[in-house]
Amino acid sequence: xxxxLIAAPAVxxxxxxxxxxxxxxxxxxxxxxxxxxxxxxxxxxxxxARTCYIPAGHLLACCLVRVPTIVVLAGSANVYVGKDEPLRxxxxxxxxxxxxxxxxxxxxxDFALTMxxxxxxxxxxxxxxxLTGESEMLASRRDKLNTVIITGE
Length: 153
What we know:
The protein has one domain (about 15-150): Jelly Rolls, CATH 2.60.120. The mean pLDDT is about 90. It has helices at about 15-30, 125-130, 140, and strands at about 40-45, 45-55, 60, 70-75, 75-80, 85-90, 90-95, 105, 110-120, 145-150. By secondary structure, the protein is of the alpha+beta class.
């Protein structure tokens, strides 16, 4: 059976200027009404996966990610990764993503974004603190619309 595969680029680490630009955007977004973000967390087999669901037409500034992850995106979005042109991701994409990035996503359609990485964390809070030094800014802590699965394996 043949499959059409979407070749998506890696998400690179971002330089200080690009990160500062997303911080400025984030500060502006914080002055606006916030759309609640549903989150789904899974801790299983030494891995942590966090999925956020973003409706079409919304802008999301992410936290500074300090661990390398794999990012899975389903839907369409423009993603600012510090280059002149945003990445346009459509359909289903699986990307390696470096540590040291703070992206901004503009959803074109409803989309789901999952990041996962290896961890020794036993709780979602531990995994989030490992993921970023900005965990207090995460939608999962602000909105508390979380589904959590921890298997203990």
